């Protein structure tokens, strides 16, 4: 994995806008952390969601903030891997490059 590829993916995801609100002012949320592996596959840099400040920022007191209340977030907006899959499908349909099938399978096998 080249760092530039991850950077390109982060930029593409950031440009997508918040997966919940559609706002453009987003922060990148690493669902399981930057170095997370699932089934021995590094997915941390790839399993990311663009979220607006109120739903991600540590200083937000929103009741559905994923950083503070991941279970509430999932109840309100759905599982993060489903939001991710929907975003990936939209990006792919728009002609954008997406992570490899191996990475996508490993992300799909997570519990989030």
Key descriptive features of the protein:
112 residues, alpha+beta, Herpes Virus-1, two-stranded antiparallel sheet, 43% helix, globular
Helix-strand string:
HEEEEHHHH
> What is the gyration radius calculated from CA atoms?
13 Å
Strand order of the largest sheet: 1-4
Oligomer: single chain
CATH architecture: 2-Layer Sandwich
How much beta, percentage-wise?
5-15%
Q: What is the overall pLDDT average?
A: 94
Give a quick account of the main beta sheet: strands, pairing sense, barrel closure: 2 strands, antiparallel
Instruction: Classify the fold: give the CATH topology.
Output: Herpes Virus-1
**Structural category:** alpha+beta
Total number of strands? 4
Low confidence ranges: none
Q: How many domains is the backbone divided into? A: 1
**Fraction in helix:** 40-55%
Count of individual helical segments:
5
Class in CATH? Alpha Beta
Can you tell me the overall shape?
Answer: globular
Structural write-up:
The protein is an alpha+beta fold. It has one domain (3-108): Herpes Virus-1 (2-Layer Sandwich). The chain is 43% helix and 12% strand. It is built from 5 helices and 4 strands. The chain has helices spanning 3-16, 53-56, 70-77, 80-93, 101-108, and strands at 26-30, 37-38, 41-42, 48-52. The chain starts with a helix and ends with a helix.
């Amino acid at each position: 994995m080249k760092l530039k590829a991850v950077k390109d993916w982060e930029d593409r995801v950031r440009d997508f806008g918040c997966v919940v609100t559609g706002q453009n002012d987003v922060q990148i949320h690493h669902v399981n952390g930057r170095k997370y592996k699932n089934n021995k596959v590094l997915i941390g840099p790839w399993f990311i969601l663009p979220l607006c400040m109120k739903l991600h920022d540590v200083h937000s007191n929103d009741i559905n903030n994923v950083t503070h209340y991941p279970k509430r977030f999932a109840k309100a907006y759905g599982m993060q891997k489903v939001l991710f899959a929907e975003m990936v499908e939209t990006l792919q349909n728009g002609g954008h490059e997406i992570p490899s099938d191996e990475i996508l399978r490993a992300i799909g096998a997570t519990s989030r």
